[in-house]
Amino acid sequence: MIEAGIIGGAGYTAGELIRILLNHPEVNLNFVFSTSQPGKPIYSIHQDLIGDTEIKFTDKINTEVEVVFLCLGHGNSKKFLAENQFSAKTKIVDLSTDFRQKSDDHKFIYGLPELNKKDIEKADLIANPGCFATAITLAILPLAKNALLKDEVHINAVTGATGAGTSLSGTTHFSWRDNNFSAYKSFEHQHLNEIGQSLKQLQADHDAEINFIPNRGNFSRGIHATAYTKFEGDLDEAKKLYADFYQDAAFTFITDEELHLKQVVNTNKCLLRLQKFGNKLLITSVIDNLLKGASGQAVQNMNLMFGLDEKLGLNLKASYF
């Protein structure tokens, strides 16, 4: 059994990780670290786990675990690792933004399996992708692979309230979010950097604008993204490019059906739909921001790092009604 620990156990992504790991056939959840909830049962925060586990949050760290997941606020993972040293055998999966940009200062591999599977299999350190970045990058990677991103890409995407985390703010209160919709960080979202980095990995000369408008939706979870750009080929050519690129992908699928969030919420899937309008290719992408956009993908990466089937423990089913 793989001994696993979670750092920052009270948030949404940690809750999803706990649920997955408790049911993973090759994992024992060794500890869940939380500075805000030490000594309290996990189910006091993640209340659906009543009857499933008696594990309590702890403020002690087992530095000998085989894998640790960092579910800390952005900017805190670097600080935590500087202050706490794990054993040489411990693999680390970080779910913050701290290590997603390539740098000589760290050896983290960007953990998008559809792009870096071989490197992930050999890695000890993984920077888990952002939720918007996952949905958007998967929507346009096949075009970059074939050097077909020659013009601006226009993206409009909406995420659920869980994308903002558990900390309250003026835009996360129910009274503000309910029956409401708004854009934020237009053209300046922090995930743009990692999206651009992934595109350049496959199309080194890519320098066209990525125009991204993120939106807040009045639902709890999920991301619905649409991206369009100029494409000279026909729809069948585009479908073949995508089918070829994702033929071995465990969780990314192409469909001709109209997409909506209930198809993917509570799963680790990304569904893509292609449509052609004049000289433009429209790609619709849907994921669960907490699973394929965070914790599910983190476990997928863990599976690859330990030589397991990447689907193991991730046979999650959507709740359609």
TrEMBL record:
Where found, per UniProt? Answer: Cytoplasm
Has UniProt tagged this entry with the keyword Nuclease? no
Metabolic or biological pathway, per its Swiss-Prot or TrEMBL entry: Amino-acid biosynthesis; L-arginine biosynthesis; N(2)-acetyl-L-ornithine from L-glutamate: step 3/4
Main enzyme class: oxidoreductase
- SUPFAM superfamilies for this protein: Glyceraldehyde-3-phosphate dehydrogenase-like, C-terminal domain, NAD(P)-binding Rossmann-fold domains
State the UniProt keywords alphabetically: Amino-acid biosynthesis, Arginine biosynthesis, Cytoplasm, NADP, Oxidoreductase
| Cell division listed as a keyword | no
State what protein this is by name. N-acetyl-gamma-glutamyl-phosphate reductase
Organism encoding this protein: Christiangramia oceanisediminis
